[in-house]
Structures are given as C-alpha cells and as structure tokens.
Amino acid sequence: MATQVPPVIIVKKKAHGHAHHGGAWKVAYADFVTAMMALFIVLWLMSASQDVQRAISGYFRDPKGFGKQTGSAMGGNGESLTISKDQMDLLKDRIRQAMQQSPEFSKLKDYIQMTITGEGLRIELLENEKGMFFESGQAAPTPIGNDLLIRLAQELGKLKNTLLVEGHTDSNPYQSASYSNWELSTDRANMARRIMQEHGLRPEQIKQVRGFADQQLRLPGDPRNPSNRRISIIVQFPQGDDAEGVKDTKVFSTANSLKQAANAKPATNAQPANNAKSADNAKAPKTGK
Question: Based on the domain organization, do 42 and 72 belong to the same domain?
Fold first, then answer.
C-alpha cells in the first residue's frame, strides 16, 4: 500500500497597518492649551496695576460703556459711575458720539459746545434766530431740541455726578408786562430738566435749576446775538465721598481708562443770580422773541 502524503496547508496572513486612534487626543490637547492660556492670563492680571484690573473688570461687567442705574428709566446692571475731573474729556467724547446718532446732527453741530470749567463739563445748546432747540419766545422745545435732550439724558443718567441746568436769554426785551426774560430763561431750564428726568436722569441728580435772563451773556459785546439764548447743562465734578471713592469706580473700557484728560485750564465759575425764579409756577406765553 502506498504511503499517504499528508496534504500541504498554506496559511496566508494579510498584513494590517497600524490601527486608527481617532481624534480624541486633539480635544484633550486643546483643553490643555486653553487651561495654560487661562493660567498665564490670571498670572498677568495678578501682577498688573490696580487701574488695569479695574478697567478689565469694568469691561466684562459692562462692555458697552457706563453701568446704568437700577430704578431709572434705563435698565442696566445696577451700578452707576462717577466721572472724575481727569475723565471729563472721555465723557465729552462719549456724549459727542451719542449726539452724532441724531439724524439732524449735521445741522446741530455748530450749535452745541462742550467745555470744561471750574464747575465741571458744561454742555451748551445755542439758539439761532429762528429757534433751534426751543420755539421762539416759548419754553416748548422743538422736535430737534426734544430729541437731543433725550439723548443727553440717556448718557448722563448713567453717571453718579450731579447736574446743574441753566437757562439764558439775550437782551431783547420780552413783549409782555407779566412775563420777562427771567421767567423765560427759568422755564426753559426747567423744561429741559423735566424732559431729561423723564428719559433717564434720576431726580437726585439735579441739584439746581437756574434762570439768568440776560445777566450772563455769552457774547457781552453783542447782547442781542441769538447765541446768547441757550441752555447750559453742567456735569459737576465729584464732591465729598464721591470724590474720594472715584478711584474705585469702573472706567469706560480697558483702553479709555488708561488715557488721561488733556490739561484743560478751568474757566472762572459764574455764580448763580439772586433773582433766579422757580419755573414750576411760571407759564410761557406763545408770543415774544
């Protein structure tokens, strides 16, 4: 019997490459890099100055700018801001930006002046011959004047600083025996106060409403010039506890907090007139200048 040869079995193995590990390591690495970045930011903040720390804190609490006061006509984060003398230039720029949002700003820009005086930031709304902000001879604001006062209130209402509101006229006599430039100037100042309080100002912000008639002319050499008729809103410098604590308040943003106001020479402060009258009981007639 022939010898039986066992069958030859050939086993072929297929070569396999290295197995795919997926992308999970990428997520872990990204988390690690993020954590390291956060660590270095914290270390930098710990070594930064107090001004920088307050600026960054203020930015993340209120990225758009000022904190807004709770309980006012403007909703907000419940905090308000005291502006120091060194920050008045920044406030002036911010108010100018707000007024530029008005569709009539191109017509208004020559009739709005802002200067830093001994009392604070003085915002003046100058009249023209036809009446830019108030109807001629009346305490009623024009649509342009009403819109501008609302925009001012929305910005100034975010501050802790107190305000003064003044009314001025030119030397043209008022055509009424029972109503004079004293009543007109005071009524206009009071009307401006009322509009602003209805749109953002807190009642305690207004410290005085003054009517000067023609006793503090803007152009003494030209007493009948229409620009002598004006409303002045003074943002006062912080006083007392606010002045001592102004360094602890938030600033506009990280960049703006590091800027210093220009060296503005304060102007001589004008004293209130003794003959200023309360405007709440006065009513302006519809005729006059």
Answer: no
Q: What is the pTM of this model?
A: 0.55
Same domain assignment for residues 180 and 49 = no
Give the residue numbers spanning the domain of 152. 62-257
How many structural domains compose the chain?
2
Residues 120 and 251 both lie in one domain: yes
d(CA 108, CA 78): 33
Task: Say which residue the tokens 């720390």 belong to.
Answer: 53
Q: In whole angstroms, what separates CA 176 from the centre of its chain?
A: 40
Q: Give the C-alpha separation, 232 to 99, whole Å.
A: 16
Residues 6+ apart with CB under 8 A from 284: 137, 138, 139, 140, 179, 183, 184, 187
For the chain (289 residues), the mean pLDDT of every run of 10, in chain order, is 75 65 83 94 86 76 50 39 75 83 80 88 90 89 92 89 94 85 94 94 92 93 93 86 46 39 42 42 43
Give the DSSP H or E segment for 166. strand 163-168
Task: Assign 141 to helix, strand or coil.
Answer: strand
Identity at 284, one-letter amino acid code: A
